[in-house]
Each structure stands twice: as C-alpha cells, then as structure tokens.
C-alpha cells in the first residue's frame, strides 16, 4: 500500500501504476508523439512500472533494515564497506545520477550485517534525491540505529543532468562526504580515505 493524503484511503500499487501510466501518456501527447503507434502503445505502463521500482525507497525503512541484523560484539576498529554501486534520480530534473558509496563506522556495542549497509544505500538512492542529502541520510541512519563511535560516508557520482544537458560535462564526478564522532579526528578520516582509495 502507498501512503496517501490525510483522510484519504491508501492507494494500492496497481492504482498508483495506472495513474502514473495515464499521466505519462499525457506527457507523450504533449511532447507531440503519437501514443497509438506500435512502439509507444505500452510505453506509459512500462515507464510507470520503472518509476515504481526506481523510487521504492519511499516504502522501505532503513532503520528497520539495520535493526533486523544487529549483533552485540566488542569490536572497536573501523568497519568499511566500499564501492557500493547505486543508481538514483536527481530531484531537480528527474535524470539519473549514479556512482559508488563508501561507508565506514567504528562500533561501540553493536555491529550490523555488511549487506545491510549496502541495502540502506539502496533505500536512500531509490528516492528522488540530491547527492548531498543522500550522504547525510546514510550517515544519520547508521549513527541513530547503531550508536557507533563514529560514521563516515563518501559518495562519488556522475550526474546525467550535467552530462546530457546544461553544461554537458561528460566526465565530471561529484564527491560528497559527511562524518560523526571519532571521524572528526583528521587522522581517522585520513585512514578511511586511504583505505577506500587503496585499489588492487
């Protein structure tokens, strides 16, 4: 079920898909296309399904994902999951941006399953996003749920809104970072950066 406005019944996934398809059909017509030609007859439905997949993060709870695999463990060294591929949609133009996320935390009392870190990256990526906010959301989720000694997140991404339109800089890469706790110490941050840049 999809959350709806106050006092309104929830919208089912199928109802949402039908409404999206209707509006995408209207968009194609406004662009001057013949929506009845063979190649476009099913396009509104296909785009609606694609959009539901690409923004499914709205219906998922990253905190629940982390909480489902928390283990008490006395380990106080850096845990890093790097090179996490992600794909997202820029909220300004609804064009893709994609790249890699690198996430580290230093446990206090709890660790989490490594795959859960990759999953929360996906949850936040599968929403209309900006890279800066996504970086902070991943950091905040881990800090709030695990209460570690510190968290650091670095995201490197290419933005199609810069590559396909506007300035059209095809090879530009945007890097964002955010951190908490012990990562405020320069040496700790440098250790993390050194480890994620240490390619085989």
SSE map:
Elements: H1 13-30, H2 43-54, H3 62-67, E1 70-72, E2 79-90, E3 96-106, E4 110-112, H4 114-125, E5 128-129, H5 131-146, E6 150-159, H6 160-163, E7 174-179, H7 186-197
Parallel strand pairs: 2-5
Antiparallel strand pairs: 1-4, 2-3, 3-6, 6-7
Helix pairs in contact: 1-2, 4-5
Low-confidence stretches: none
Shape label: globular
- Helix-strand sequence: HHHEEEEHEHEHEH
Largest sheet: 5 strands, mixed
What distance separates the N and C termini? 45 Å
Proportion of residues in helical segments = 40-55%
Total DSSP E strands: 7
> Mean pLDDT, rounded to whole units?
93
| Strand residue percentage | 15-25%
- How are strands sequenced across the largest beta sheet? 5-2-3-6-7
Helix and strand composition category: alpha+beta
Radius of gyration: 20 Å
Please explain how this structure is put together.
By secondary structure, the protein is α+β, with helices and mostly antiparallel strands. The chain has helices at 13-30, 43-54, 62-67, 114-125, 131-146, 160-163, 186-197, and strands spanning 70-72, 79-90, 96-106, 110-112, 128-129, 150-159, 174-179. It has a 5-stranded mixed sheet, with helices on both faces. The protein has a two-stranded antiparallel sheet with strand order 1-4. The radius of gyration is 20 Å and the shape is globular. The relative contact order is 0.13. The mean pLDDT is 93.
């Amino acid at each position: 079920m999809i959350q709806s406005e106050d006092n309104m019944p929830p919208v089912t996934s199928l109802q949402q898909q039908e409404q999206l398809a209707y509006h995408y059909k209207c968009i194609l017509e406004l662009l001057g296309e013949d929506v009845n030609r063979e190649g476009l007859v099913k396009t509104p439905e296909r785009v609606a399904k694609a959009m539901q997949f690409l923004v499914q993060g709205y219906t998922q709870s990253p905190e629940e994902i982390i909480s489902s695999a928390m283990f008490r463990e006395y380990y106080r060294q850096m845990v890093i999951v790097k090179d996490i591929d992600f794909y997202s949609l820029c909220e300004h133009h609804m064009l893709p941006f994609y790249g890699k996320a690198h996430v580290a935390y230093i446990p206090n009392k709890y660790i989490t399953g490594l795959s859960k870190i990759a999953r929360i990256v996906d949850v936040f990526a599968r929403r209309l996003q900006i890279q800066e906010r996504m970086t902070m959301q991943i950091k905040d989720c881990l800090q709030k749920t695990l209460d570690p000694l510190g968290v650091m997140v670095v995201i490197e991404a290419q933005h199609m809104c810069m590559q396909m339109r506007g300035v059209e800089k095809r090879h530009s890469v945007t890097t964002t970072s955010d951190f908490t706790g012990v990562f405020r110490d320069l040496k700790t941050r440098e250790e993390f950066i050194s480890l994620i840049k240490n390619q085989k």
